[in-house]
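Reading a protein record of the kind used here takes only a little practice. The integers have meaning only within a learned vocabulary of local backbone shapes. With that in mind, consider the following protein and its fold in token form:
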Amino acid sequence: MSHEQSDQERVESRAHLLPEEAALGSENPQAQADAILTESDIREEDRNAAPDTVLEDRTSDQTVTPSEPPD
């Protein structure tokens, strides 16, 4: 299977509207799916590509101040 075929299969799969999308309707589900997947691929390749999004790699102990000292 070529890369192009797998992209087309992804678009066809994503073109099935989610319940929220179906409630609003879509003039062109194929184009909508293609746009969503293209943006998703860009964000996957570049974690800083999402507008107004800052992704941080921290653990919970770096973000939460303990209310009690550890035992």
